[in-house]
């Protein structure tokens, strides 16, 4: 039977003779089918040491990343001064509050600066509903290293936002509520991260709740790793216990440090730096776009290889046979909570590029002469659809200023430029359009945004999207 390594706390009364041994640095083994698993995984020693105040006790087996056994190994290197991470969680598990504490403790803001709660939720709808809808970038500095942090949505309807940003990171912080444990979005996001081969640090958040059950949550999370066919290295994940609202973290639920030092140490030790081809041809996959009035469209992504400079002529590729040329007018990197102008960006860092007015998500910004396109971004298919049509009631034009089918069509197709998980197609009439999304909330947010922008239209009831495969009708389902 298949075995895998597991480090156990000394509080578990297992003798070394209970489990079969083999040549490995870990002292105990267990059987996946029997599901014998215990408490947080930490170091390769049988005793889990609690982090001291200088946070030097954290060790991770997953920090020793296996190098690729290919000819490219000679060219690829890892940057030790950068970490790219995504923070993912089920909705209302305290992810955004934890990000707030990370920003404050790394001195992103002045000591006397007034800072609102849920800093990363800048959208009006996000603040009103108390959920994250759009992915956002920021960065902090810890011990001379730059940590690029991407805050992601927690609702499964916005899973497309999570899927595309996983291309920019090497690891994720999986935030799990200390009472509820893994939830549907936890499963979905973790499955995608494991498919990418990313390292995972599990953060058991809200550990200060009186009903917290950390042992159950860690064991349930570990079971989820096994169900999703995680590798042995991925299953040996680091567990950090935290209270985002208090800004504390530790290796034990009973002994939290006075700050988030153990969490930052886990990021530095357990999440590898980006593997780059420093001397290769320029390659950057566009994973997000923004728009500003005086800058135009802004392409955001991680530089995979080479160097990108301001004023540089580049090639924009959708595929090897579909390329066009452009010039980089402005170049930005993320420092603290802001975009900062840069003259030059090296491979491994996340940057924002201006000057390419027609750039789309999934395209590659490459070297003008020798650049090649990277694999495009693929996301899960939509599950529900709704019809959008112009308002034909007697009160048309009383609540909105954009009422024609041309206005409606332009706005819906413009949404596709940023929202990869959404699809729009023409309906049965010239005034009707079919909008498909990942869920009813996904489409509801679009409707609310359009209403606030002054669009007036009618919508039909949501309908489940069925597919016919091998003469069988299939419908979407959720585990």
From TrEMBL:
What range(s) does the Tr-type G domain occupy? 80-275
One example of the protein's molecular function in GO is: GTP binding
Under the heading InterPro entries, the entry gives:
BipA_GTP-bd_dom (IPR047041), BipA_II (IPR047042), BipA_III (IPR047043), EFG_III/V (IPR035647), EFTu-like_2 (IPR004161), G_TR_CS (IPR031157), P-loop_NTPase (IPR027417), Small_GTP-bd (IPR005225)
Instruction: Write down the superkingdom of origin.
Output: Eukaryota
Pfam families given for it? GTP_EFTU, GTP_EFTU_D2
- Report what the protein is called: GTP-binding protein TypA/BipA
Q: Supply the source organism for this entry.
A: Medicago truncatula (Barrel medic)
Lineage of source species: Eukaryota, Viridiplantae, Streptophyta, Embryophyta, Tracheophyta
